[in-house]
TrEMBL record:
<feature type="site" description="Interaction with DNA substrate">
    <location>
        <position position="249"/>
    </location>
</feature>
<keyword id="KW-0460">Magnesium</keyword>
<dbReference type="InterPro" id="IPR005135">
    <property type="entry name" value="Endo/exonuclease/phosphatase"/>
</dbReference>
<feature type="domain" description="Endonuclease/exonuclease/phosphatase">
    <location>
        <begin position="4"/>
        <end position="249"/>
    </location>
</feature>
<feature type="active site">
    <location>
        <position position="107"/>
    </location>
</feature>
<keyword id="KW-0378">Hydrolase</keyword>
<feature type="binding site">
    <location>
        <position position="248"/>
    </location>
    <ligand>
        <name>Mg(2+)</name>
    </ligand>
</feature>
<feature type="region of interest" description="Disordered">
    <location>
        <begin position="238"/>
        <end position="258"/>
    </location>
</feature>
<dbReference type="InterPro" id="IPR004808">
    <property type="entry name" value="AP_endonuc_1"/>
</dbReference>
<feature type="active site" description="Proton acceptor">
    <location>
        <position position="249"/>
    </location>
</feature>
<feature type="site" description="Transition state stabilizer">
    <location>
        <position position="150"/>
    </location>
</feature>
<dbReference type="GO" id="GO:0006281">
    <property type="term" value="P:DNA repair"/>
</dbReference>
<feature type="binding site">
    <location>
        <position position="7"/>
    </location>
    <ligand>
        <name>Mg(2+)</name>
    </ligand>
</feature>
<feature type="binding site">
    <location>
        <position position="150"/>
    </location>
    <ligand>
        <name>Mg(2+)</name>
    </ligand>
</feature>
<protein>
    <submittedName>
        <fullName>Exodeoxyribonuclease III</fullName>
    </submittedName>
</protein>
<feature type="binding site">
    <location>
        <position position="249"/>
    </location>
    <ligand>
        <name>Mg(2+)</name>
    </ligand>
</feature>
<dbReference type="InterPro" id="IPR037493">
    <property type="entry name" value="ExoIII-like"/>
</dbReference>
Length: 258
DNA sequence: ATGTCGAATCGAATTCGA
């Protein structure tokens, strides 16, 4: 079973790129973030024609998440939205059960500029995710937390750490909260398969960041303890970032033995 | 500070968020 996460940065603008990648890689599950489209403008027919069923949580202009599943099996929906703040109108979280695995697709807030209200929102959102993570682990179900976490976990995950120490993606508060999530027992699948490699999943559009390989590793697939032993491979489809009209993220994937 | 995208707007350029 192959599960991928891909911040698409505008689903309708990027639909040809998405369809090409799905056709090439045929992941069993694809978690998408930054759809930037309202619910009713989701390109469901094109995605169905590509062989995928989808559930999504859209929003006008910003955010938006979706889970695509290959084949004819309907997606069993577990929920939209992250509990803990009834005032939160941003579409950043969706869960689905696929082949016995609970898949959570998330788009964690960027949080810049920091400090400030956007950073506060990010940290509060992380606390809510930590609570949901504990619930999911307590359920005993196999779980994958997949998405754009907007968190650079360590210095190995950024091309030039000293430039990012005050950025919301790398600040001490952010890494501390991410560390508390990980301490629940999650496995960082990319890092566990490649302990010492510099691996990036995002390259800014500015200043030819991709050409200079000035990237970040901020897209993650975290595995519950019950799934960690099933991890067979993990990687990044880097070349997708180098194509025409690319997203600023590359698809990131794992292969599970199931 | 810079730079570049996508989406939306009392639009044909500007803003917002990233």
């Amino acid at each position: 079973m192959r599960i991928a996460t891909f911040n698409i940065n505008g689903l309708n603008a990027r639909l040809p790129a998405l369809l090409q990648w799905l056709e090439e890689k045929q992941p069993d599950v694809a978690c998408l973030q930054e759809l930037k489209t309202p619910h009713e403008k989701f390109p469901e027919e094109a995605i169905n024609a590509a062989g995928y069923q989808a559930i999504w949580h859209g929003q006008k202009s910003w955010n938006g998440v979706a889970i695509l599943v290959r084949g004819t099996e309907p997606v069993v929906e577990a929920g939209r939205g992250l509990a803990g703040d009834p005032e939160d109108a941003q579409s950043r979280y969706i869960e689905a059960a696929v082949n016995g695995v609970l898949i959570a697709c998330l788009y964690l807030p960027n949080g810049n500029p920091a400090p400030g209200p956007k950073f506060d929102y990010k940290l509060q959102w992380m606390e809510r995710l930590i609570l949901r993570g504990a619930e999911l682990l307590a359920s005993g179900s196999p779980v994958v937390l997949a998405g754009d976490f907007n968190v650079i976990p360590t210095e190995l995950d950024v091309y030039k750490p000293e430039r990012w120490v005050n950025d919301a993606l790398f600040r001490a508060e952010t890494r501390e909260a991410f560390g508390r999530l990980m301490a629940q027992g999650w496995t960082d699948s990319l890092r566990s398969m490649h302990p010492d490699e510099k691996i990036f999943t995002f390259w800014d559009y500015f200043r030819d960041a991709y050409g200079r390989d000035a990237g970040l590793r901020i897209d993650h697939l975290l595995l519950s303890p019950s799934l960690a032993g099933e991890l067979k491979a993990a990687g990044v489809d880097r070349d997708v970032r180098g194509r025409e009209k690319p997203s600023d993220h590359a698809p990131t994937w794992i292969e599970l033995d199931r």
